[in-house]
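Quick review question:
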């Protein structure tokens, strides 16, 4: 237990100093001033030490227990409450402040909080935190600053256990998708929807014919048995495999945030991965993931699995992944995927493309296309569009606009040569990546391309 002098001590010290100064100004001898001053300081020190010893003995005789009630996991950027519960046993009452040892990557409100510990009572203090970084977060022991028994000092005490929590990507986009899907309003977020009856390639069920249904899907045997037109309904093919090849290299460190506000490019990539995985898993497909562009031995691999529980397992594998300064070796990533997965799948490469990557990425795409259906999804920085759309009111602005147009045209031409402008290519800003992936996935399913 540590101590710091209270405000009362500093007031008394100031009074002693002013009295000594006034006496010296009045012409009192130094020796006559020094002795009373030293006696006052000694008395103040004795009283403060006695107060500290008495307070420490009282604290040890009190039994104070602290429990922290925090969510089992956090979502990036989502504000959540955390509460500290105190249980006090003993005859003494304590007053002061509490400051929880919150992970440095969290923004918090409500700390330090005033605290009054009453014997036999349960006291609860609540504050709110907002995670700003994915990965492991640590809450240390809470720090208590308590007033001593006589008020001459303050006691510093640490209480409670350390706790680790995980910070996952934000699930808000998935929740909104699920809500809008149930309400059949997916167009509000840009998801294209289609009439499903009679589409797809897998047989689903028999149903009565309705006006507008394709005549080629009429089941004539069932029609003769029932005496009314019966049609075969189909659904999108199930039991297929989606493999996500996620670039974690230096290209993915691009970030449009200003003053740390917003979500980084790679965080939005993981949000898009979650949304696409959620949709594919609910369609009955298997989803797997493989990272590249990391130091040797640091890559993550998740074998394809089916079922809605797979999303939690996938995020438990990827939640702490961060982009690195490492060069992204597309060819090595393609060879690694071909070695691991032999069954034909839809491979979705998520990267941040530059025109100088054309030859290497082109060769990797040819390798993957020899066995799999490959979709290329690339991020586009928002700042480039902002530069191109700014007014040409200065010479510097005109130079920026011309440079941005030249850069964008070179990049777009190289990307179109790789992707052949087909449906298996996406070039989108990070906040639109999830919507674009879902739309392309639906298009591939409807076309029966896998």
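Suggested answer, residue by residue:
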């Amino acid at each position: 237990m540590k101590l710091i002098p209270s405000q009362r001590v500093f007031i008394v010290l100031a009074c002693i100093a002013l009295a000594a100064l006034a006496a010296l100004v009045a012409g009192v001898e130094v020796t006559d001033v020094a002795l009373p001053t030293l006696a006052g300081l000694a008395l103040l020190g004795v009283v403060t030490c006695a107060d500290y010893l008495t307070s420490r003995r009282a604290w040890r005789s009190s039994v104070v227990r602290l429990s922290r009630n925090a969510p089992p996991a956090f979502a990036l950027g989502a504000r959540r409450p955390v509460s500290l519960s105190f249980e006090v046993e003993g005859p003494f009452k304590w007053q002061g402040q509490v400051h929880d040892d919150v992970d440095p990557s969290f923004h918090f409100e409500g700390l330090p909080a005033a605290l009054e510990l009453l014997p036999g009572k349960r006291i609860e203090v609540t504050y709110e935190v907002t995670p700003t970084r994915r990965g492991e977060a640590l809450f240390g022991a809470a720090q208590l600053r308590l007033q001593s028994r006589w008020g001459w000092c303050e006691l510093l005490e640490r209480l409670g256990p350390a706790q680790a929590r995980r910070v996952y990507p934000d699930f808000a986009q998935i929740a909104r998708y699920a809500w809008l899907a149930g309400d059949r309003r997916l167009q509000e977020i840009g998801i294209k929807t289609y009439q499903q009856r009679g589409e797809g390639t897998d047989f689903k069920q028999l149903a009565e014919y309705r006006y507008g249904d394709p005549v080629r899907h009429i089941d004539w045997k069932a029609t003769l048995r029932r005496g009314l037109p019966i049609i075969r309904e189909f659904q999108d093919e199930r039991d297929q495999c989606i493999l996500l090849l996620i670039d974690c290299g230096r290209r993915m460190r691009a970030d449009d945030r200003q003053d740390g506000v917003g979500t980084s490019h790679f965080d939005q990539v993981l949000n898009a991965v979650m949304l696409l995985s959620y949709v594919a898993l609910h369609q009955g497909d298997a989803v797997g993931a493989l990272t590249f562009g990391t130091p040797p031995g640091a890559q993550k691999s998740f074998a394809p699995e089916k079922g809605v529980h797979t999303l939690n397992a996938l995020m438990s594998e990827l939640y702490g992944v961060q982009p690195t300064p490492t060069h992204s070796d597309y060819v090595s990533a393609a060879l690694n995927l071909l070695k691991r997965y032999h069954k034909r799948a839809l491979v979705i490469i998520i990267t941040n493309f530059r025109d100088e990557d054309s030859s290497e990425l082109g060769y990797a795409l040819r390798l993957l296309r020899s066995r799999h259906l490959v979709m290329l999804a690339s991020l586009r920085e928002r700042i480039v569009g902002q530069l191109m759309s700014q007014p040409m009111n200065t010479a510097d602005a005109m130079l920026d606009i011309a440079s941005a147009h030249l850069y964008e045209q070179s990049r777009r031409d190289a990307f179109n040569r790789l992707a052949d402008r087909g449906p298996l290519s996406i070039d989108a800003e990070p906040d639109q990546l999830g919507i674009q992936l879902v739309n392309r996935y639906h298009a591939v399913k409807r076309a029966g391309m896998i």
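Why it works: Residues 205 and 233 are 5 Å apart (CA to CA). The radius of gyration is 33 Å.
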